[in-house]
Amino acid sequence: MAATRSSASAAAATSAEIVVEDMKRKRILSSKLYFDVPPNKVPVVYSPSYDISFMGIEKVHPFDSSKWGRICQFLVVEGFLDKNRLVEPLEASKDDLLVVHTEEYLKSLRSSLNVSLIIEISSTSHKWDRIAIGLIVEW
Fold first, then answer.
1. Residue (of 83, 82, 92, 78) closest to 35 by Cα position
2. What SUPFAM superfamilies does this protein map onto (predicted)?
3. 3-state class (DSSP) for residue 46
4. Contact in structure between 107 and 85 (CB atoms under 8 Å)
5. What's the pTM value of the predicted model, to 2 decimals?
């Protein structure tokens, strides 16, 4: 009897895994983010919105958040890349985000403390930096 119950549990777990994988596959296929790069484009994805700048937050982050724009500009100026051939990304919907993130993680982004940890703004940063992050999260 125990073996039968164990087999039933394993089958239910496998069935649940199949449902989850099927849901992920449907999300990927319905997403506008995952598209073939047209022949007149190159698989370099860039948007000016990658250059993060908001009320000075970029100055307290340990990494240079405007480097992507400078890299792209360098590639264009040096002739390695034609600006008209860049692929500009679309904005991700919640379903798009759920392809790679859990619902719990997305909910955690509603907390300014979690966001400040993720973007590496320490608790010792200036209080106005933390207030700005709180405003962004609530916005």
1. 92
2. Arginase/deacetylase (SSF52768)
3. coil
4. no
5. 0.51
Per-residue pLDDT in tens (0 to 9) along the chain, 139 residues: 555 555 666 666 688 888 888 888 887 777 777 667 777 777 788 888 877 766 666 666 666 777 888 889 999 999 988 888 888 888 888 988 888 889 999 998 888 777 777 766 555 455 555 555 555 555 5
Nearest to 120 by CA among 66, 64, 67, 62: 62
Whole-angstrom distance, CA of residue 109 vs CA of residue 102 = 11
Strand partners, 123: none
**Coil, strand or helix at 118:** helix
Q: At 74, is the secondary structure helix, strand, or coil?
A: helix
| Residue 45 β-bridge partners | 87
